[in-house]
């Protein structure tokens, strides 16, 4: 039988950041990025290449930089790391870097790192173009460094038929709210890079829209349209999540509220209890064994499962235990 409970550590690394220089200030970084464009492309960008001159985020990690535009070409050796550490170490970039693409050739890009700037002389060469986020040039958008180009792909009738069918009359507004939700997450300091900003079809109605934003650092942020319009503090699902102690208290309260005689409920709080919190959603599932008297006075074994979402009331299911 089921019941519902509603109210209740100077070497920074062997592959990318190998430097003893001081990091640039934020203003220096901005100046660097603004002046990243080159009027003199490198010799590698000859007449067989296409000059591009664009600035991009990097996708993925430990992306090797090579001497030539080929997967068979030798990798650049990280001379400093190789000298200090045991073995040969290579020059790599990852998604914490910003690069300037000088030219392309056959699916490869000749790049130089522009952020962090202490890598700009050592981290330059050919990488596979697929490792660059080419959905946006970082030159003109203040949020381009903070929001992945794939996070805000527009909803189309072909790509999202159910969403368009249900919310078509507010589609333009939805796209604007998705964008603002992503910006709020980026500005919060809790989201290192927005990877997804979407409408929650399951929670939304035409009169009350709900959105969720996922971040590279594993954080998830949920906002409804009224919170987005009002602005203010942004809380992650982790911020709003139930603690183990608060979940236990809520579940026990729910169990007793369902009991015929609350004082005759015996909670197995040590051996009969399990607690799980999901890593991204931070939804909690708490199981508690207990014994309780039924309507004719017999003590029977039960198991309660409490489902607790961050910032929301919970639900409880109670079944007889074998």
Give an account of the 3D structure:
The chain is of the alpha+beta class. Helix content is 20%, strand content 26%. The protein has three domains: 106 residues, no CATH class; 78 residues, no CATH class; 77 residues. It has seven helices and 14 strands. Strands 10, 11, 12, 13 and 14 form a five-stranded antiparallel sheet that branches. Strands 1-4-5-6 form a four-stranded antiparallel sheet. β4 and β5 form a beta hairpin. The radius of gyration is 27 Å and the shape is elongated.
Short description:
The chain has 322 residues and is α+β, with helices and mostly antiparallel strands. The chain has helices at 26-34, 79-84, 161-167, 171-187, 225-230, 237-240, 244-258, and strands spanning 50-57, 63-64, 92-93, 98-105, 108-115, 124-128, 194-199, 210-215, 220-224, 266-267, 273-277, 284-293, 299-308, 314-320. The strands form four sheets. Strands 10, 11, 12, 13 and 14 form a five-stranded antiparallel sheet that branches. A four-stranded antiparallel sheet has the order 1-4-5-6.
